[in-house]
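Quick one - first record:
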Amino acid sequence: RRQRQMCIRDRISEAERKQKDLQTAQSHYLKELKSNVKNFIQEVQEFRKVYEKKGPMVPGIEPKEAIERLRRFEDEYFVKERMYTINKSGEDLFGLPNQSYPELERTSAELKNLKRLYGLYLSLIHISEPTR
């Protein structure tokens, strides 16, 4: 009986140590998440500024150049979208409110519309080429 009580105490002690370890790890990951979200807010704002200055909607560029820029910004957007998903999952895990990124949402909508527009443009060019 005495041996059983010692075994139980050992298990309780081990469980308490593990709980402390998990709390320390949780604190570390929460700080890291908050730092990542803060940095990501700045990244998204910078991405939007560059998009507005050098993106596919800059007035006066040729359609071919706009299509190339669209592809480059789509690639970069997908990286940002992945980071958004990771951060959102972390916020959900820790019960934090989800950060909103209006610049990212606006850029997403514009990229989708531009992709459709230039897709139609390329289809028309392709259709009209044989008649030239």
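second record:
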Amino acid sequence: KQWATNQLLCDTKLLFLIPLRDPNTKQIKHLKDLVHYFYCFDETYIETCKECSKILTSNSNHITVIFDGFDEYSDRSDDSLISKILNRKILPHCRIVITSRHTASFKLLNQYRKDTCLRVEVLGFSDESKLKYIEQELGNDSEKIKQLYAYLDSHASIMKICYIPMMLTILVYMFKEKEELPAES
């Protein structure tokens, strides 16, 4: 509940999203290089990246690192940069959030210190919460709500993926903008 109400990370001043699906991540050995690889897209970002690197190396309080797709990261050696962060050899006071498929998360986290990570489990929408979300987003327009319910009832495969909050959000947004949705293939 804290995650959804913006209370969980409220003291974070720097947040870094590190997509571990990127195959180049395992080749990065230094924190500065990690920041530059993911955040220095062109010359305009270089000064900002230098400042972020200084903050990261001087004080890791109020910093959150999100490792996205942790179950897809193949380099689990102790000398990898990611392992060093997880084991508090680098950024000892930062907050760490790991995303992974639910079925893989327990096995993966057992490799690292138990007190290292904040574990946020987002299981997705139940059938009841899907409907509540749709009603919340479409407001008092009962005709649109009925239309979208009917669409989902007649498209079982689309209804199944709507348990993922982002998928339902995209679907509702598309419906609000265009009032038509794709047919199943």
